[in-house]
Structure formats: C-alpha cells, structure tokens
Amino acid sequence: MSAKSRLEHRFGALKEAGRGGLFTFVTAGDPDPETSLALVKGLPAAGADVIELGMPFSDPMADGPAIQASSLRALKAGTTLEGTLDLAAAFRQEDSETPIILMGYYNPIYRMGVDRFLERAVAAGVDGLIIVDLPPEEDEELCKPAIAAGLHWIRLTTPTTDDARLPEVLRNASGFIYYVSIMGITGTKSASREAVAAAVTRLQRHSDLPVAVGFGIKTAEDVTDTVAVADAAVVGSALVECMRANLDETGKAKPQLVEEVLAFVRALARGTRG
Amino acid sequence: MSVRNTYRSGPDERGHFGIFGGRFVAETLMPLILAVEEAYGAAKHDSSFAEEMRWLQAHYVGRPSPIYFAERLTEHFGGAKLYFKRDELNHTGSHKINNCLGQILLAKRMGKTRIIAETGAGQHGVAVATVCARFNLPCVVYMGETDVARQAPNVFRMKLLGAEVVPVTGGTGTLKDAMNEALRDWVANVESTFYIIGTVAGPHPYPAMVRDFQSVIGAEVREQMQAQEGRLPDSLVACIGGGSNAIGLFHPFLDDESVRIIGVEAAGRGIDSGEHAASLTGGEPGVLHGNRTYLLQDGDGQIKDAYSISAGLDYPGIGPEHSWLKEIGRVEYVSVTDREALEAFQLCTAKEGIIPALEPAHALAHVANLAPGLPKDHLMVMNLCGRGDKDVFSVAEHLGVSL
What is the ipTM of this complex? Predict the structure, then answer.
C-alpha cells in the first residue's frame, strides 16, 4: 500500500462506517523511547484512526505548556529526529494500515537535510507531514520536495486565514486540512461548536479534502461535537496531560501509564461513535 | 551570477538575504505578518511618518547622538584614532529606542491596542515600556527569569513605566525563551496586539524594518565624520547579539568598500568551552523565530542555550542579514570573552569617564586588540550603544566586590 493511499483509504473507511475520525497526537519518545513505542502501538486498537507523532523540538513556539513539557521530556530522554523516525518504522512493521503523520518544527529536519529526512520518512512508512513553521510562503523548502517524495502535505488553516488567503494556503495541501480552531497555542482555549461548524463549512467551499479540527479538544463530548461538523477530531494536549499525570516524581513512567492513556483514548473514541 | 553593485538592496520581496531570512511562522501569524509588511511599506513612503519620527528623534530621544573622539583611549592604545558613536546618551540609555519609536508609530497606524515585547538585558524592554507610556498603550514584556534576576534595575524601570513584566521559566530563562513566549502571546492575541521585536531578527519584514529604524546611527556617523574629519571612517566596530545596533551602524556604509566593518560576538567563557553566544563563529545555519540564520544548535537541530556575561548578547541566533554579510565576506565577525569585555568595561570607565554597557564593552575589547596595530591616521568608529548603569551590580559581583 503506498503512503498516499493509506490516508485516503482511512478516510474512505470512516465514511463507510458513517463516523468521524479520532486523530491522536503524542510526542515521540515521551517520556522515554520504550514507553512511547508501547503507547503508539496500542493506539489503533484503542480507537485512534490516525496517529500524529510529534517530533520533539527545543523551542516549540506554537505549543502550550503541556506539549512544551512533553517535548522537553522526550529530548531529555535522548530522542532525536532519527529516533522519531525509528519509532515510526517500528510501528509500521506491525501495522500497515494506520496512517502516521509527523508533526513538528522545521529546524531538526533542515539540520538533518531535507533529502535524507524524506528518504528516511518514506522508508519508515510515514504518510504525511505537518510542519508548524512552514507557511505557503516557504513551500520551496519542504512542501514541494515532500509531495514529490510521495508524502501528504497537511496544511494548517486558522481563524485568521481569510477567504482571500485560503486558496494560497490550500494550493499544495493534500491528505486532509487541519483546522486550528482557535487563535492561540495548543492546549489552551476551546472554540465554540458554532464557530467550528462555520469554519468547516467555509473550508469545504474551498476544498474537497477532509477536514480535521484540533486545538482545545479535551473530552469525548468535545470529540462528538467536533465530528458532528468535521471529518475528524484531533486530541493532543489532553493526551499528553494524561501521560504526565502518570509520571512519578522523577519524571519516569509509572507502570500503568500506557494502559491509563489508552483507556483515555478508548473513552475519546466512543465520542466518534455517537 | 550577476554582478553585485550594492550590498544594501536586500532583502528580496520574500524577505531573503541570500539563503537567510524568510517567513517561518505559524499560519495564525502569517496574515498579520503580511499586514505589518504592507503597513510598513506604506509608512516608508509617507512623509508624515518620517516627519513624526524626526520630531521624536530630535526632541524625545535627543538625536543626533554625538560622535566623540575618545582621546585618552586613543592615546592608551597608541594606534588608530578612536571615535565613539554615543548612542548610550539616547533617552532610555541605549540604541533600542530608535527602533521602538518606529514600531510603535506603525502599531498606532495599524490600529493595534496592545503591545508585547521580549527583552534580554532589559534595554529593549525599557525602551518599549517607555514608548508605550508615551503613546498610552498597554504593554507586556516577556523576560527570562535568569535575566529578571540579573537585571533587577531594568525590571523596576519597566514596572514604573507601567509595563507588565512576565518572567519566563522555560528553557534557561533567557532571551530565546522570552521570544518564544512573546510569539505564543502574539498567536493568541493576534487581532489586538503588535509585537515590537527588539532586534534585526524574526520573520520578514522585521529584520529589514528594524534595520531601517536603526540605520539612523550609521547615517549620522557618515555626516558627523565628514564634518569632523572631512572623510569617511576607515573602520567600524560594533557588538552583536541579535545585531541591531551593529546593522544600524554598518548598513549605510556597506557599499563603501574602503570601510572595514567588524562585528563582535560574545565568546562567553571561550568558544571552545561551548558556553558562548557567538552564533556566527560557533553556530550553523538553521531556522528559528521566523527566519533562517546562524544558530547555536546541536547535531539534531535542537537549539542550544547561549551564554554571555552580557544579558543583551545572550541569544543563540543572529539577524539574517548578518549571516548573509558573513557568507559574502563583506563584514568580519570576531568574538571576545567575558573576561576581555570586563577589562574593557573598566578601561573605558577609567580612561574616558564613560561607563559602557557590557554589550559595547565587547566591541571595545576588540578595539583594544585591533587599534594598537593600526596607523594613527586610521579613523575607527565604535558604536557605544548602551550605558552601563544597569550592569554595575553584576560587574561588581564578577569582580568580587560586594555592594
């Protein structure tokens, strides 16, 4: 199965099942590589339809305290971009169907070298990229090479992306559109259901791509509300917080961490099944 | 490749100086960044904007700042004839006010009702708080908690001026962390808020805009040296953290090939120690805070913390135009250590009766290396970009004196 069709296949399956998707974000290597791999491997069975894997960065400018701390934990545990790609590859060996989207900031990729990164990402079975600090103005950097390598380029759109700008933002978008439902960083405010519905309708006027909504989605009820108007709901900070609640004083994973986080994912997933 | 006939035409329309610069920001900010660019473009061609700037520079800041022949230091070094550009005499005590006035006038034009800023040493924070008081806008300044501790007088000044000072605990609690936090605030308050970036970094148009506002320094030096000496200087020296005072001095001279131009970075405890803030000397190109530039980073692209005795130089990046000027070889970039800067700080105070900030003390430390070997008719201008009152407590501590 090619990288491209895996994501399309998943959206097709969701449509057939008549439900919205649950996309889960966790930071690769948080709180340590082994726990992280065990958690990611458990996500599909717990109800995650797409896995967003955060590439840890020292300066996550668009993230709130929860994901900042998560990123720093992963780095402290020795996670590098190579390690993140290894994790994706290890997951892919056992699961050929669940799409993996890498999400993060450009500098670690730039440092590794775009060609080498893309080669490794494709080999690892990664399906798409969300790079927070690469707007369409910088498409030559990674967007176009990534598409040429067969990866999806998932674009972030926000409440500030107006109708005049939207076509430019969507020009090279593929896979799905990630709608950032608030003006702000991850894990802080939440948008009203009406505002999200209006925004998704606006996006659908401009594009046939599925729309996933993220930022501020914390509970199964939030998920239900979101998938009532969008194709998928993304949960990130709330998952990462659940993980943090299962660390001991020294920041090490408690024995029940993986199970507790997966239980939370199962609860969230029920939100997609009405 | 086409023949270059000017070094002063950058950036291109997408904000690039060679491969450096650009607009690497989250989508939420992009429309606003484009609006800032448009508003700045309009202001540049509006004579009322220039008029208001000139009036404020003359009557509020005290420009032009003097050019001063540092006679005793010249004698002490026994070589080049040394001039100081006295930007430490500006209102608020550094060159930072030049840029803040320009940006707050722009913020007003854009109808913004709230100002945010980052600060390291607190000089930029004080300048922002000052213009916010003057123009009656609420102001939030993000400052790393390490810097809050070592720059207590400036924290108090900002508070007196009515600013809210938010200590930032992330990372090592220095300038880069303050900038991250300011960017997070901006993303959340994009409609009301203008971000006054303090140096020639950040997404386009900031590096060009801040440079333009600071270029008053070099433009004045040209006129003043013509008046005093009847010719251009032979060399220019300025310290570099983000690089705003340096580019302000350098930019009007970039096309004068006879002028040797030198930027001085902070080598902290020495480049080899790994504890320094010399992005050009000890860093690699990367992408942070909206632009591609030289950064202190590890092999995985994680940003390393900068270290310098001087809070104002303690930044792991540098303005993208400096990265470009380094690569094309127009400007020389060197570095000096904490120890050398401390010596220069004391030397300047003792010889000229001027207490410099620790930042320009770095520039002077390099002048001390360079000037003795140059002929007496060599005209050297150093940007004395800030005064050292804020640093006396930390200098005392470094010298083992308890106050």
Answer: 0.95
